[in-house]
Write a structure and sequence with these properties.
Blueprint (H helix, E strand, L loop, with lengths): L9 H27 L24 H4 L57 H4 L44 E3 L7 H5 L7 E4 L5 E4 L11 H11 L11 E5 L5 H6 L5 E6 L7 H7 L4 E3 L14 E7 L11 H9 E10 L5 H4 L7 H17 L3 E6 L2 E5 L5 H10 L51 H4 L8 H21 L1 H4 L6 E4 L6 H5 L6 E7 L7 H6 L4 E4 L12 E7 L1 H4 L6 H11 E12 H11 L4 E7 L8 E8 L12
Parallel strand pairs: 4-5, 4-7, 5-6, 7-8, 11-12, 11-14, 12-13, 14-15
Antiparallel strand pairs: 1-3, 2-3, 8-10, 9-10, 15-17, 16-17
């Protein structure tokens, strides 16, 4: 007989399951509650004074899932601060690509390249014409395989440069180990070598020159006497010295609050510009050949040539025409050396009287075509003055048709722009006594006075109010920078400064009371050309494209300021190329301040990790919620090994 199984009604079965489910849920909730009471305390954010954490950015399940036994509390703290950023290390050069990969360590270059200047490379220059010394102009590597992907080494024994003002008169031999000029210019008081105690040699600069054997100070006094005291009254503030030698003129003019842009080619006068920079004097590699100089029109109060060996009378006066372009209205051109006073010196110059007389006559003729007035010729000095406007000059040109005006080329266009045999026209005036382009204030009022280019509305988007606000902003920002960089706050720690994206020159203006000089760069890619404004403030600078190397020696600058540089060049060239160039021209233990969007700064920081730099990320002075960050970096001290260890 079959066994009967008692049946359970569906209603009772449902109630029994429901009770079990409820008990399970209550039990689990109780366990979760008990575990929650043992939560781990939150980790506090790192100090703002510490280096950035370099945590790898990973997305694997193992690193993103929480352990079942660990529960973190809710964190309501702000994480927009610079020190809270997680750095992504990459090897790619594109700012837009931040895919994670190990840090790329850049190797050291061959020690033979310790003074390498990419755009003035002797081997590359041989591909170009020798006519008019074109081969000595800028000729930069174009192909990627031509560009160095390594770090330029300082020579063995390199030391922190002598501080200003002592450096005007003496520098370490180990920093510029070249004695050739001490022999070549032994009788002209350019430079002497002295063996110091302990075998540490020094170069000493007596302040002499080929045409000023009594010293630079005496020579400067003589010039000032011929131009009516314009040095002491603040009428002359910016000077360009063509073929500068070791820049003793510029070095001694600094004591009179006059800023000189000295330049000379990289030629047989080995390391002349390098000596100038090591002395703490503004200088750069440059030459008058076929291209315009990288300065705006109406930039300098005075141009100077002391036996600079530039053929002023040749090529229809092309080089004097270029000097005229960069001279401000009423500016001076000072010439000493051949052919001036040839009647006295012709035998020593090993040239015929007829040759020298012809050269001087040609120079005089070109000066007249430019409408210059010869002020004085006394002894070995001759001085001309540019007119304050072109009212008379235009009449003369129409009548005698001696020299046409350059109506096609823009006066301030000067980046790989060919020089032309035509006169750069000055801005129009309404009165014959008016100064074309506006009268400049005397120094030091010139620094903060509204520049004529701005007051006339010539600079798009820049009004007097914008100028004044920019000036005040930089005073505050420099104070903030000093709180981030102890060296910047220490007077005399740094001497040679570079501002890679200068805009109105506010960074340099805010440092005017410090014992420093600033090379202001206006990138040719900038939306507005402001270099003329910088010169009207009594400051100096150049045009440049940061996709190329700068015309200067390695270890030129103590401090580099890079504000919005990488956003400007995003998509134009590799970030690595710009950073490697910055490393080349920065001295060991030199500092850099980068400012830019947080994503770009993170990318830059990941690259400099492989360049023997140390860095810290800081918030912008506007606070942690502002997207722009400030990255402060210091290049570590390292040099090439001793010769015996080179192998």
């Amino acid at each position: 007989m079959a066994m009967m199984i008692p049946s359970v009604s569906p209603t009772k079965l449902y109630k029994r399951i429901n009770i079990y489910s409820t008990l399970i849920v209550i039990t689990l909730c109780s366990i979760a509650y008990l575990l929650g009471s043992y939560q781990r305390p939150a980790v506090s954010p790192s100090s703002s004074d510490s280096f950035l954490r370099k945590s790898p950015c990973t997305t694997t399940a193992a690193t993103t899932s929480l352990s079942a036994s660990v529960f973190l509390p809710l964190d309501f703290a702000s994480h927009h601060r610079a020190e809270d950023l997680i750095i992504i290390n990459t090897t790619t050069s594109s700012i837009d690509d931040a895919s994670p990969s190990p840090v790329h360590r850049f190797p050291a270059c061959d020690v033979k390249l310790s003074e390498y200047t990419p755009c003035e490379d002797a081997k590359r220059s041989l591909r170009f014409p020798r006519e008019r010394l074109i081969y000595r102009e800028r000729h930069c590597p174009v192909k990627r395989e031509e560009k160095l992907r390594c770090l330029i080494q300082a020579p063995h024994g390199y030391r922190r440069p002598v501080r200003w003002p002592e450096s005007r008169d003496t520098v370490w031999f180990s920093n510029v180990p070249h004695k050739w000029l001490t022999v070549e210019k032994a009788g002209q008081n350019w430079v002497r070598f002295e063996e110091a105690a302990g075998g540490e040699g020094r170069f000493r600069f007596p302040g002499g020159g080929t045409m000023f054997p009594n010293g630079a100070d005496s020579y400067i006094d003589e010039i000032e006497g011929l131009i009516g005291g314009e040095f002491s009254s603040g009428g002359v503030r910016t000077v360009v010295d063509t073929g500068c030698g070791v820049a003793s003129l510029g070095a001694y003019l600094l004591s009179r609050d006059i800023l000189t842009m000295s330049f000379a080619p990289k030629d047989t006068h080995e390391a002349q510009v390098q000596f100038a920079l090591e002395r703490g004097v503004p200088a750069m590699i440059g030459i008058l050949a076929s291209n315009r100089l990288p300065y705006p029109s109406r930039a300098f109060d005075m141009a100077h040539c002391s036996r600079c060996l530039i053929p002023w009378g040749k090529y229809d006066g092309l080089y004097l025409i270029e000097v005229d372009r960069i001279l401000r209205p009423g500016g001076y051109w000072v010439l000493s050396g051949p052919p001036i006073n040839w009647q006295k010196h012709w035998k020593g110059w090993a040239r015929t009287q007829e040759d020298l007389d012809s050269e001087q006559s040609t120079i005089e003729s070109v000066a007249k075509k430019l409408c210059w007035k010869k002020l004085k010729q006394k002894g070995d000095l001759s001085i001309w003055q540019k007119p304050s406007n072109h009212v008379h000059c235009k009449i003369i040109q129409r009548v005698f048709k001696k020299l046409n005006f350059c109506w096609v080329q823009k006066p301030d266009q000067a980046w790989y722009t060919k020089m032309g045999v035509c006169l750069t026209p000055l801005p129009e005036v309404s009165d014959i006594k008016e100064t074309a382009g506006g009268q400049l204030a005397r120094w030091p009022e010139r620094l903060t006075h509204i520049p004529p280019r701005i007051s006339s509305g010539s600079v798009e988007g820049v009004t007097p109010d914008v100028f004044n606000q920019n000036t005040e902003m930089w005073k505050n920002r420099i104070s903030y920078y000093k709180s981030l960089n102890n060296g910047l706050a220490e007077p005399g720690r740094y001497r040679n400064f570079l501002d890679m994206n200068a805009y109105l020159g506010g960074f340099a203006a805010a440092l005017i009371d410090e014992p420093v000089w600033v090379m202001n760069v206006v990138p040719v890619e900038a939306k507005v050309n402001t270099l003329g404004v910088i010169y009207e403030r009594g400051l100096i600078g150049i045009y440049h494209n940061w996709c190329e190397a700068m015309s200067t020696y390695p270890r030129t600058y103590d401090f580099i300021h890079a504000d919005q540089v990488f956003s400007l060049y995003q998509g134009r060239c590799d970030v690595e190329d710009i950073l490697l160039e910055m490393d080349r021209i920065l001295r060991p233990e030199g500092s850099v301040i980068f400012v830019g969007d947080v994503d770009i700064m993170v990318k830059v920081n990941s690259i400099i990790d492989g360049m023997k730099w140390e860095s810290r990320m800081h918030d912008h002075e506007k606070g942690p919620h502002y997207r722009e960050k400030v990255l402060v970096a210091v290049k570590q001290y390292w040099t090439s090994p001793a010769p015996a260890q080179s192998s």
